[in-house]
TrEMBL record:
Keywords: Methyltransferase, Nucleus, RNA-binding, S-adenosyl-L-methionine, Transferase, tRNA processing, tRNA-binding
Residue ranges annotated for the SAM-dependent MTase RsmB/NOP-type domain, each copy included: 66-430
Residues of the active site: C321 (nucleophile)
Short name of any one Pfam family annotated for the protein: PUA_NSUN2
Protein name as annotated: tRNA (cytosine(34)-C(5))-methyltransferase
Subcellular location as annotated: Nucleus; Secreted, Extracellular exosome
Family per record: Belongs to the class I-like SAM-binding methyltransferase superfamily. RsmB/NOP family.
InterPro entries in the record: MeTrfase_RsmB-F_NOP2_cat, MeTrfase_RsmB-F_NOP2_dom, Pre-PUA_NSUN2, PUA_NSUN2, RCMT, RCMT_NCL1, SAM-dependent_MTases_sf
Primary localization: nucleus
Top-level taxon of the source organism: Eukaryota
Alphabetical list of Gene3D superfamilies matching this protein: Vaccinia Virus protein VP39
Origin organism lineage: Eukaryota, Metazoa, Chordata, Craniata, Vertebrata
Amino acid sequence: MGRRSRGRRLQQQQRPEDAEDGAEGGGKRGEAGWEGGYPEIVKENKLFEHYYQELKIVPEGEWGQFMDALREPLPATLRITGYKSHAKEILHCLKNKYFKELEDLEVDGQKVEVPQPLSWYPEELAWHTNLSRKILRKSPQLEKFHQFLVSETESGNISRQEAVSMIPPLLLNVRPHHKILDMCAAPGSKTTQLIEMLHADMNVPFPEGFVIANDVDNKRCYLLVHQAKRLSSPCIMVVNHDASSIPRLQIDVDGRKEILFYDRILCDVPCSGDGTMRKNIDVWKKWTTLNSLQLHGLQLRIATRGAEQLAEGGRMVYSTCSLNPIEDEAVIASLLEKSEGALELADVSDELPGLKWMPGITQWKVMSKDGQWFTDWDTVPHSRHTQIRPTMFPPKDPEKLQAMHLERCLRILPHHQNTGGFFVAVLVKKSSMPWNKRQPKLQGKSAETRESTQLSPAGPAEGKPADPSKLESPSFTGTGDTEIAHAAEDLENNGNKKDGVCGPPPSKKMKLFGFKEDPFVFIPEDDPLFPPIEKFYALAPSFPRMNLLTRTTEGKKRQLYMVSKELRNVLLNNSEKMKVINTGIKVWCRNNSGEEFDCAFRLAQEGIYTLYPFINSRIITVSMEDVKILLTQENPFFRKLSSETYSQAKDLAKGSVVLKYEPDSANPDALQCPIVLCGWRGKASIRTFVPKNERLHYLRMMGLEVLGEKKKEGVILTSESAASTGQPESEVPEEQRAGEPNSPDAEEANSPDVTAACDPAGVHPPR
């Protein structure tokens, strides 16, 4: 097997951070050790202990605490989604309800500690408890708390994420205008943090920045899409490439093509994962030094590719869930050395007050797979040169080593704050990488074009890691960025690309792994589909209609999506070199019987917070009591709602409506965050189209205890409604409602052809 294909295989397989708590968190591998019925794995590995004691990464006198911590299950941690306006309400609900119920509780003889905020995470938005994930799932006393966590996670309001995994996005210091690349993004918990930071100001529906989240594994990309979708952002794009040779993209700036350089890059590389032993306990028996020796080259290639695409003045965070200096300091030292001063390590010691960490080490040794130590490259026999490389050793020159400031790296040890093990380094780019500075040789046009095409299409798409020696050769890197952009522009202009269509690349230029994606087709300005929508919802003149797209080139457009202006620019200028898995949020869905109404498209809850600022009609302001009724009953008659709501609804034509709740500051006991819901104004009733978990979220925020759901009637039972003995009224006849989805969760269906699944309003709109 060649080095390139081996690198691709390692990148797909060596990802122990898969077990980050994304939704239910953890992979099957992690669960098997706790509850799969397999023999208990003995948490011993003599080679591991010998290796790290020799490297002295643990302070003297703390080795016993270090090993004891590794043998303990990892505590459960959660993070409240920071950019949503109701983050404070969730925090209030957690503190005053669920955490109080945990006081003085014992589970399996273990006293449950009340969750505490992570001291270093801003605004008390991250919490940890001594409960392991196993106890949290299986204990009857904690069932209510567990249901809350699962439901709120699915709604995107909290993330079940390991504490140390939250550190890299914080150190990126993201601002809403930043262009961000997440190079190895799946399963996506760090990506969601980055999206939150872009949307720090909820009053701005389209931040100038965006996140491009990449992963080499096609299947994991869909996990990434699921994670990102929970945040309903128009500023996220998921792509599928080998990170070590991810294509160099271009954008249109005032009519000319320019190379896209990122302001922030997260480089959370595949690693051996010995920092995850507390949750991935099979690492105990599988750990060897060979893992890190095999991954070092791939990690360095990914970090190098990231540094190439970083803008001058930009910040890149390199991180691993490994404690091994071969994967950590050795990669950073080699990258700094080859950058020739273009990169430097940032001092971030005061950026996360409260976080305990150890400084990076400046001296280390390399152990071969059979246990032999080497202190420098000169002592490695020729027979070991394929296994051990010179970049794995610290620089020999003391002055050069001191100038690198490797002590600015952060190593998180498990026993210091009851976490997993982790390594983080923050790099700042001072100037172009040396191989991008060199002047191109005098060559003919054909050679120039050949150089530009080497930068992106076939190589990266086939998932082959770039060869560092080729990266440094003048023939590959001598061409300046301007020449690259112009050559790429010429190539594109010679093609017969359709305007506004960003489809999968031609098979000759790019091998497609996994599913073949539908194209991304932007709605033309003269499309007759849009004026009725614009008129029906009285859209503001500032509405960015050019950012609307569909996923089909033929037939009826069933769903309309929206992306930010900047992502539109990226899509339109790079469709030949990018494999895009997903982008945009759904804002409108076609009604099956839409032609009967003034507008064939109804609003989608997924994109309502983005769309709402531009809508000027069909808005009904509702009270908190109205919201409770609308979320607990499927088709409440007008008479059940307040007179103010009825007076607004009675003159509206049938069709989609916006239901808006505005908090009353004079009533501090009421819900203090605004709510925007999608609804349908029927003949004599109003219904909401809100996914189940989002319904439950709003009800909890209003202080209602959700007891269950009567699926037949489509009614959610709460602590208030359970006291009522009357049968809930329903307008839609039983035989008619049988064909309608029980929950608007169905609007999340992926296929635009399954109208009944994605369009409950269109199947049987209420009377």
